[in-house]
Predict the 3D structure of the following.
Amino acid sequence: MAASLNKVTLIGNLGQDPEIRTFESGATLARFTLATNETYKNKSGELVKRTEWHNITMWRGLAEVAEKYLKKGNRVYVEGKIRSRTYEDNDKIMRKVYEIDVNDMIMLSGPNDSSGQGGQSQSSGGNSSSQYDQAPPSQNQAQDNSAEMDDDLPF
């Protein structure tokens, strides 16, 4: 039978500075929350904004990049997979939490900027890095450029 797929892609803003842990083995872990927003009109025609919070984990090289460059409010693109884990809380109650285990990240805002300007790509392999001179185009700009892009396609 065919293999299954566990892949998550998110663009959002950090809800807090990354929490960093370094283990005896030398491995580094970064944890933070990421907020994604959805806006829609309800039955009454009122504009409703809904925020979804995601628990993010990054290991090793990505964790080190997160520690160095990511701050609360920064906008990031992350790719990874959903993981669940259970733990016992302080009241001895077993809890289950879902996390996004990130294997690729693009910083959409600089280390001291939460406006979405600029960007840098990082992956768990540590070999991927690119710079963008401007912010990603808005949805309207992307639609305006779509006709120009069709002329450049090699097929």
